[in-house]
Design brief:
By secondary structure, this protein is of the alpha+beta class. It is built from eleven helices and 13 strands. It is elongated, with a radius of gyration of 24 Å.
Length: about 325
């Protein structure tokens, strides 16, 4: 009987501490070659970002032409799966994105005729909906005893692009093993610390919410501004109150505020809705959009996003 009581108490302490909860949920991962790796192998393409020419990784070309990248990602993915982290299949997501590209290219603004502006990585993030993007870089060198593989493994929050984990090292010299195996063995010595860093970041998100950015602006033709009063309160104060009620623990920072623009940073939103679906910046901000479209405001509100972690509301028109 005493043993049962002790076990019950221990179980209760684990539940109250969130231990079991954190064990039940793991962040979803997406593994990609790093920008530097792609640049060194000329797997890059030019991207028009609203008139500015940028070079970005061409992941499709990398998977089609490089003989090692698929094996390397498979090896690293296997190590992460063994530690309970679910993975998104990047190669399959790239194929799905290719099917949507033709539709996106035909999409334009109803008023100005402008096309969609989205980087290939943003397209991949939006499609795969991973929590964390892991990037791998490696280089093979020759030593007297055989080949040595140097690597850098970095993890970024897919919503904020903040670096949350990193690991680097070298394999033991060996001529017998192929590069993916050498790389796997080198990473294996550091993988537990790396995985712990990932889980620590995700546990923080469970407790304090996922971080996004939010901007509220107005069209210059709009009859109101963000200092206009409704029911005795300025609009920007009413938006502030809404965020206080709807963010996790009321956590956000108002970094800029004027009659024309408000910028919010470190806006902490829930990870999942009541149906256990992942919440991104668009899904969260859509509720604010509905609030501003309803009485007493009855505004027209345009919602735009940049990747998974930034949303912009423009008041006055669509």
């Amino acid at each position: 009987m005493k043993q049962k009581i002790i076990l019950t108490i221990v179980f209760g302490m684990l539940v109250s501490s969130g231990f079991l909860f954190s064990q039940a949920k793991k962040p979803t991962l997406m593994i990609l070659p790093s920008d530097n790796w792609c640049a060194q192998r000329y797997f890059m393409t030019e991207f028009d970002n609203q008139g500015t020419k940028l070079k970005v990784p061409n992941y499709k070309q990398a998977f089609q032409e490089d003989t090692e990248i698929g094996q390397v990602i498979s090896k690293i993915g296997g190590l992460m799966i063994e530690r309970g982290f679910p993975l998104k299949d990047v190669e399959q997501e790239l194929k799905a994105i290719e099917q949507r590209t033709a539709e996106n290219n035909m999409t334009s603004s109803s008023s100005s005729g402008a096309g969609l502006s989205e980087s290939p990585l943003d397209m991949l993030k939006n499609r795969a909906k991973a929590d964390i993007v892991i990037q791998i870089w490696w280089k093979v060198s020759k030593a007297e005893q055989g080949k040595v593989v140097s690597f850098v493994l970095e993890a970024f929050d897919a919503y904020t692009n903040k670096r949350i984990a990193a690991s680097s090292g070298n394999s033991s010299p060996n001529n017998a093993d192929v590069v993916p195996v050498l790389l796997q063995n080198a990473i294996l010595a550091n993988i537990d610390v790396f995985a712990s860093q990932l889980q620590k970041h995700f546990d923080d998100m469970f407790e304090n919410g996922r971080e996004i950015r939010l901007t509220v602006r107005k069209w210059d033709t709009w009859e109101y501004d963000l200092e206009s009063e409704f029911e005795g309160e300025e609009l920007r104060d009413l938006i502030y109150d809404w965020l206080t009620l709807n963010t996790v623990k009321g956590k956000f920072n108002e970094s800029n505020s004027s009659e024309n623009l408000i910028s919010y940073e470190q806006v902490r939103i829930p990870l999942f809705d009541e149906r256990d679906r992942a919440i991104d910046a668009r899904r969260f901000t859509r509720d604010l959009q509905k609030y501003l479209k309803a009485a007493p405001f009855n505004f027209q509100v345009k919602l735009m996003t940049r990747g998974l972690g930034e949303a912009i509301l423009v008041l006055g028109e669509k």
